[in-house]
Specification:
Mean pLDDT: 83
CATH architecture of the domain at 88-118 and 137-244: Beta Barrel
Distance between the termini: 99 Å
Number of strands: 10
């Protein structure tokens, strides 16, 4: 008769082999794809932070010197003055600092620029019924030294901004022309100035941007009698290059 314990041992080993193979197959099926940790979120690009310098230039496109004025004396003679508002040029530098990296940022800057234009008036003088027409013009050179506070809206490469500045100016009349007569200048004045600003940057990379900017600049004359309003409102439009250190 066959030896039963030996047959039972073989049967047991066979059963264990089958169970082991089934367990391994089940484990492989349930394992699925190998686990891969997610990549860290990319660091967002940040443009326009920290210290910067800038070069700026543009046009003084209009000076608000008031309306036509007429003066009459006791003899009935009249003088009518019609101010002329010619264009000019401005150019200079900025240095400033942008605080923070959020969507809305505050910046503080020093804004220094040359500001020159030609001013004048057309006149109509009537004396004893005789009318004479004339015109006068003079070149004005000035320098503005302003401290600006800006609110910048950071939305990637494109960053609009608004701001307000206070400071001072120095101006002098370089030359004056009255009809056929020309005179050298020499008169000068320094006083308080303020400006409102609106502009926008487009960043070419993390350090360099091109910008366009509008300024409403007002020169006051608290220490000189230059007319009824004692202020000169100017509209400046320009642009430039901003570079962060």
């Amino acid at each position: 008769m066959p030896y039963k314990p030996k047959q039972q041992m073989k049967k047991l080993i066979h059963t264990l082999s089958v169970l082991t193979l089934a367990f391994l197959l089940a484990a492989r099926v349930n394992a699925g794809e190998p686990y891969v940790a997610p990549a860290p979120a990319p660091v967002p690009d940040t443009y326009g932070t920290g210290w910067y310098g800038a070069l700026q230039a543009g046009g003084n496109i209009f000076q608000d010197r008031g309306d036509v004025r007429t003066f009459t004396n006791a003899l009935g003679n009249t003088l009518t003055l019609d101010p002329t508002n010619d264009t000019g040029f401005f150019g200079g530098v900025k240095i400033g600092y942008v605080f923070g990296t959020g969507g809305v940022r505050f910046a503080l800057e020093e804004d220094m620029f040359y500001n020159g234009w030609q001013s004048g008036a057309d006149s109509t003088l009537t004396v004893n019924g005789v009318t004479t027409f004339n015109s006068a013009s003079w070149d004005i050179n000035s320098g503005a030294f302003m401290t600006n506070g800006l609110i910048r809206f950071a939305s990637g490469r494109f960053q609009p901004y608004i701001g307000f500045g206070i400071g001072c100016y120095y101006a002098e009349v370089a030359s004056a022309t009255f009809g056929p007569f020309n005179f050298s200048g020499g008169s000068s004045h320094a006083d308080f100035a303020w400006q409102a600003i609106a502009g926008a940057d487009y960043y070419l990379d993390h350090r360099n941007s091109l910008f366009i900017e509008y300024k409403f600049l007002e020169y006051t004359a608290s220490q000189a009698d230059i007319g009824d309003s004692r202020v000169l409102g100017q509209h400046l439009l320009g642009g430039g290059w901003r570079f962060h250190f």
